[in-house]
């Protein structure tokens, strides 16, 4: 699907000039930096933190290139993928005029960000198998529809969306198809980022918050065409990812082996937790999952939730989420954490 990104962009941004600092304009080495009103004496913490961080996160992008084979020009690094979601709205959706399509039950920030930006939401519920109703999604598109958010594997249901459904939507929509792959590392499928050259209207979101275990540093990623990445980079706050976050991200990315080991352990625990859950008669349904969590349906979710919380185990009550009646979402923890959870669930009647 060919798209005109310039045409999709909000009109007032078509001539927008990104904030430019003297530091980014200077290409030499060993300068005395008296341009940014930093503290040249050092930092109160005693660490090397008195200078603003690299606004383009070059080292992080290079590490991602090495790991994922995606060139730096196709990578946006944000303050969590939540920042990328917000910037996509701010770049492409005119408040009070444009709309986006989401497919609940799904990740809540697509809606929160839409509301924050005064963008109309069109909701097309997933079907009973938590798969896309492709024709209904395509029928919901109008001339003001700028983005369709697809989460695969989906949160809170845990399942992957069918490849052919995502393909059909991507091939029949002239706006952006945003595929959120926050949980891709726990699934057996390849990332849609491998197909970016085929789909110039695709934006793939990933994060270091899940499989990489780096939720504290808030680093999220968007992969897309150079044109889309240029736009996100132009409108982001100049120093959106701190030096501490960039350093920690780099350290994690240079230690991919550890991520792979943790993912295998989590998958092992997932199998074990699901097997144990099958033994509890009050667990009415276990939704198949390709993530590091599992959604179950129980007879009395509010009661189970309260019982677990009272015993200091916090899970997510999804009872009021569309199509998730009776739903409790459980993150797969360490063996000890899962032992505690399952022991409590065993005693719960
Ligand atoms: C589907 C999905 N996307 C994005 C995020 C947020 O990621 P980040 O921590 O990078 O903002 C989450 C967090 O739970 C999520 O479930």
Given this structure, which CATH class of the largest domain is correct? Alpha Beta
Please work out how many helical segments DSSP would assign. Answer: 12
Distance between the termini: 54 Å
Number of strands: 11
How many domain regions? 2
Strand content: 5-15%
Cofactors, ions and other ligands in the entry: pyridoxal-5'-phosphate
Helix content bin: 25-40%
User: What is the C-alpha radius of gyration, as a whole number of Å?
Assistant: 22 Å
Q: Major β-sheet, in short?
A: 7 strands, mixed
Q: Architecture of the largest domain, CATH level 2?
A: 3-Layer(aba) Sandwich
Mean pLDDT: 97
Label the overall shape. globular
Question: Would you kindly provide a written description of the structure presented here, covering whatever features stand out?
Answer:
The protein is built from twelve helices and eleven strands. With 349 residues, the protein is α/β, with parallel strands linked by helices. It has two domains: 218 residues, Aspartate Aminotransferase, domain 2, CATH 3.40.640.10; 91 residues, Aspartate Aminotransferase, domain 1 (Alpha-Beta Complex). It is globular. Helix 3 runs parallel beside helix 9 and helix 10 runs parallel beside helix 12. Helix 5 links the parallel strand 2 and strand 3. The site of pyridoxal-5'-phosphate has 12 residues, from helix 4.
């Amino acid at each position: 699907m060919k798209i005109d990104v310039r045409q999709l962009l909000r009109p007032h941004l078509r001539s927008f000039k990104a904030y430019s600092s003297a530091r980014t304009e200077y290409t030499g080495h060993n300068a005395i930096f008296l341009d940014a009103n930093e503290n040249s004496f050092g930092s109160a913490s005693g660490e090397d933190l008195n200078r603003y961080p690299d606004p383009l996160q070059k080292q992080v992008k290079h590490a991602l290139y090495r790991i994922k084979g995606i060139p730096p020009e196709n990578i946006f690094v944000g303050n969590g993928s939540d920042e990328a979601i917000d910037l996509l709205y701010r770049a492409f959706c005119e408040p009070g005029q444009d709309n986006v399509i989401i497919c609940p039950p799904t990740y809540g920030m697509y809606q929160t960000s839409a509301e924050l930006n005064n963008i109309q939401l069109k909701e097309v519920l997933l079907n009973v198998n938590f798969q896309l109703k492709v024709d209904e999604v395509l029928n919901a598109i109008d001339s003001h529809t700028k983005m369709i958010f697809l989460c695969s594997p989906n949160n809170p249901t845990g399942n992957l969306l069918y490849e052919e459904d995502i393909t059909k939507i991507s091939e029949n929509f002239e706006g952006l198809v945003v595929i959120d792959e926050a949980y891709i590392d726990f699934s057996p499928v390849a990332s849609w980022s491998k197909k970016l050259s085929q789909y110039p209207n695709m934006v793939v979101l990933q994060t270091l918050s899940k499989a990489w275990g780096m939720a504290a540093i808030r680093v999220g990623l968007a992969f897309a065409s150079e044109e889309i990445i240029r736009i996100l980079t132009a409108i982001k706050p100049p120093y959106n990812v701190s030096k501490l976050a960039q350093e920690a991200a780099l350290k994690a990315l240079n230690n991919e082996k550890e991520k792979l080991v943790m993912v295998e352990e989590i998958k092992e625990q997932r199998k074990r937790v699901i097997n144990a859950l099958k033994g509890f008669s009050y667990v009415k349904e276990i939704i198949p999952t390709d993530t590091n969590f599992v959604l179950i349906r129980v007879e009395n979710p509010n009661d189970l939730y309260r019982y677990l919380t009272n015993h200091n185990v916090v899970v997510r009550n999804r009872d009021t989420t569309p199509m998730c009646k009776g739903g409790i979402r459980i993150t797969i923890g360490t063996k000890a954490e899962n032992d505690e959870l399952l022991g409590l669930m065993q005693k719960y009647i």
